[in-house]
Every structure is written in C-alpha cells, then in structure tokens.
Design brief:
It comes from Nycticryphes semicollaris. The protein is mainly α. The chain has two helices and no strands. The chain is rod-shaped, with a radius of gyration of 56 Å.
C-alpha cells in the first residue's frame, strides 16, 4: 500500500510536471513571440530614428536655404534702396536742369527783347543817317562846325554796332546752351524711364522671392509638424519597448522561479 501510494504520488507529480512542462513550453513560445515582436519594434525604432535624422538633416538644409534666400532678399532690398536713391538724385538733377533751362529761356527772351530794342535803335540811327546824308548838301556850309558832332555820332554808332554783335554772339551761345540742355534733358528722361523699368522688374523679382519664401516657410512648418508627430510616435515606441522589457524581465523572473521549482521537483 505504501508503494501504491508512492506510485500514485509519483503519477500525480509526473502529471503535474507534464502540466508544468506544457506551461513552460507555452511560456517559451510566448517568450519567443515577444522576442520577435520586440526585435521587430527595435528595427522599426531604428528605422524611425534614421528617418528622424534624415528629416533633421533636411530641415537643416532648408534652414540654410532660407538663410541664403533671406540674404539675397536683403541684397535685393539694398539694391532697391540704391536704385530709389539714384532715382531721387536723378529727379533732383532733372529739376535743377529744368530750372536752368527755364532761367536760360528767360535770359534768352530778355536778350531778344534787348536785341529788338537795339535793332530799333539801329533803324532809327540809319534813318537819321539818311536824313543827314540828304541834308549833307545843305549842311556843307555848316559841316565844319558840325564835324565834331558827326564824329561823336559815328563813334556812338560804332559802339552800338559792336554791342549789337556782342549781343548776337551771346544769343548764339545761349541758343547753343539751350540745345545742349535740351539734349541733356532728353538723356535724363531716357535714363529715368530705364530706372523706372528696372525698379518695376526688381519689384516683380522681390514679390516672386517673397512668394517662394512663404511656400518654403509653409513646407518647413509642415515638416516641423511631421517631425513632432514622429517624435511623439518614437516616444510611444520607446515607452512600449520599456514596457515590453519589463514584461520580459517579469517573464524571466517567473521562468527562473519555475526552473527552481522544477529542479526541486526533479530532486524530489
């Protein structure tokens, strides 16, 4: 009966050992699946880390591009300011030249008025000379008495004639200066049109650069949002991996306890 009892106990122990063995096999299978899942998660985490690094590099490149575009934008703005200053200087110069042309025109009109008055004086003197020549026969008796007066009149006519010639030369010089000022005015008008066209072109380029910069800023904002999502996903994966590591540690401790119980049962 003792042997029978021991056999029954042994059979019970063997059945329990089989159950524990089956349970251990199931735990090992679960452990293998968890190890495979953990390895898969680790590979995904490495892939996500590489993708995050690539996105960081791409973000740095985009930041460099934005910095270069900002520098170019500042350069274009400085060029536009220089062009605006040149345009204002040209406009001021044009106003000064217009004022000079107006003054020269007024001076020319004054010279023409003076020339007309001198011409009238010459005509009057010519008429007077004709009258004197007509009366020359009548005044032969008094010519000696009037000789000094005639010499003075002749000197006066010579002086007026020399003044008239000087005024004609001054008028020609004023007209020449007026022509040169008109040509310079036309050149300044052409230069002003070129500067206006160049300024409009720079404004169009500046608007295109601003649109391109806004598009790149939108892409950067989208990339930052994607980077934040990836970082959150990576943090979740890391937390999940930690939890799996803890579960794996618990399973290992449970397996160690089970192994100790199994070894004690085997010793029994």
């Amino acid at each position: 009966s003792t042997i029978q009892k021991q056999r029954e106990e042994l059979q019970l122990l063997i059945a329990e050992l089989k159950d524990r063995d089956k349970e251990l096999n199931d735990m090992v299978a679960v452990h293998q699946r968890e190890l495979l899942a953990w390895e898969d998660d680790r590979q995904k985490r490495l892939t996500l880390a590489e993708r995050c690094n690539l996105l960081d590099n791409e973000l740095n490149k985009r930041n460099d591009i934005i910095k270069s575009l900002t520098q170019r934008l500042k350069f274009f703005e400085s060029q536009q300011n220089d062009s605006r200053a040149t345009f204002e200087y040209t406009q001021q110069k044009f106003k000064e030249l217009s004022q000079k042309v107006t003054d020269a025109t007024v001076h020319c009109h004054a010279l023409e008025e003076k020339n007309r008055s001198l011409h009238c004086s010459v005509l009057e003197l010519s008429a007077r000379t004709g009258q004197l020549q007509a009366r020359e026969q009548e005044l032969l008796t008094t010519l000696k008495l009037k000789d000094e007066l005639m010499l003075e009149t002749t000197d006066h006519i010579t002086e007026i004639t020399s003044k008239f010639r000087k005024l004609e030369s001054a008028l020609r010089a004023a007209r020449t200066e007026e022509l040169s000022l008109s040509e310079e005015k036309q050149d300044l008008k052409l230069r002003l049109k070129e500067l206006i066209l160049e300024t409009n072109k720079l404004k169009v380029d500046l608007s295109e650069k601003i649109k391109e910069n806004s598009k790149q800023q939108e892409e950067i904002i989208q990339l930052r949002q994607e980077n934040g999502c990836l970082r959150n996903e990576l943090a979740l994966l890391v937390e999940k991996s930690k939890r799996k590591d803890q579960l794996l540690q618990f399973a290992r401790s449970k397996q160690a306890r089970t192994d100790r119980e199994l070894s004690s049962l085997r010793q029994v």
